[in-house]
Write a structure and sequence with these properties.
- By secondary structure, the chain is an alpha/beta fold.
- Helix content is 38%, strand content 10%.
- A 6-stranded mixed sheet has the order 1-3-2-4-6-5.
- Helix 4 crosses helix 8 and helix 5 crosses helix 6.
- The longest helix has 18 residues.
- The radius of gyration is 17 Å and the shape is globular.
- The protein starts with 10 loop residues before the first helix and ends with a helix.
Length: 240
Amino acid sequence: MVAGARSAGDLAALDAAVADCFACPRLVGWREEVATTRRAAFRDQVYWGRPVPGFGAGDARIGILGLAPAAHGGNRTGRIFTGDRSGDVLFAALHRAGLANQPTSLAVDDGLTVQGTRIFAAVRCAPPDNKPTPAERDTCAPWLHREIELIRSTLRVVVALGAFAWAAWWPAMTRVYGVRPPSPRPAFGHGAHWAGDGPNPVPHLLGCYHVSQQNTFTGRLTPAMLDDVFGRAKSLAGLD
C-alpha cells in the first residue's frame, strides 16, 4: 500500500503525497537519472524528476486516464502531458472540444486550465521504455483509486488512453465502486464503449488510442478520431 494514498482528504493533499512517493526503486532511479542527465534540448532546465500528480478540475465529469508520465515531458515539467508531443496532441484536441482554455501545454505556469476534466495516469513515475512492470503498476494503483474516490460524486465518463489504461480501470472500478468487471472483460479498441448496468452506477468507459508519437505520426490516431472520442465523452457526461 502506498503511504498517504488512503489518508489524503482532498485532491491537494493527494497531489502533494503523490509527489513525495519513493515506493518503486527502479522508477525512482530512472526518473532521477533522466532528471540529471537530461535531453540536450532541455539541458539548461531543472527537471521535476518526481512522481507526477493528476491535473484538472475537482468536480470533473470526464476523467482521462493515461499510462505514465513521459521521461522528458511530465517528468521534466511536473505536469501530466506537458512539454512533449503527446501533450501537444491531447490538449489541442481538448481545446477543440471546449474542455481546455488553450491548445498547448508547455509548462506549469503557462496558464492552462481544463473544464469539467481531470487527467491522471495509472503509474505516476516515468518508467524506462514507457513500460512499467506489473508490480510497479499494482504498487501505484492506490493513488489512482483514491483520486477516483475523490471525484466519484461527479465523474461520469473515463477515457482510457491505450490498452494499459483500459486494463487499469477494471480493478480501480472494483475498488472504488464495488462493482466486479464483466467476464470476459471487454477488449480495448479505439472507440470501444462499456457501460455498467448494475445497481451501483459507474462511469462510462471509452477507449482511445494513446496520443503517442508512434500513433499520431503514423496516422493510426488522427485529430478527427480524437474529436469523435471527446465529443462522445462530453455527450455522455452531460457537457455538450
